[in-house]
Amino acid sequence: MRLFVALDLREEVRNAMRDLIATLKPEGKNARWVRPEGMHVTLKFIGHTDAANLHSIQSALSGVHSQQPVEMNFRGVGFFPNDRHPRVAWCGIEASPNLARIAAQIETALEPLGIERESRDFAPHLTLARFNPPARADELVRAANELKSRGFGSARESEFYLFESITKPSGAEYKKL
Question: What's the mean per-residue pLDDT of the chain?
């Protein structure tokens, strides 16, 4: 099983991402664009694990809580690692401080199960597209720069989910566990 922990998105945000992708797609022909119906805010990528570990993972996650819902504003477009040789195009997330605390609690809860901590700092975002290999995307970068401060909606979430990622030729499908 290939697993990750994430916040799901409301349909209004998915629709805004659908419109954003439609705007950017003509400028990024060499990108593999994400389907909005599969978008989520990843809190922890677990990776491949044996199905026998599922109950332990679910039990560990059941102890992670926040007193308040997570507030998120979706704003701007950028690139990882940079806009000169992008691997990922993303929509930024301005979130209440408890989002990072929840992600840290998840890391702490899963570490005793042998699931390694993420080496990079938590950077909440929605993946819009991937580039393989890292590519020049000058037209897309120009279009994205025009959207750096544009908002794409907001959300308030009080639940996170454990997902299974099922790889198919048509792309990954995500199943809430």
Answer: 93
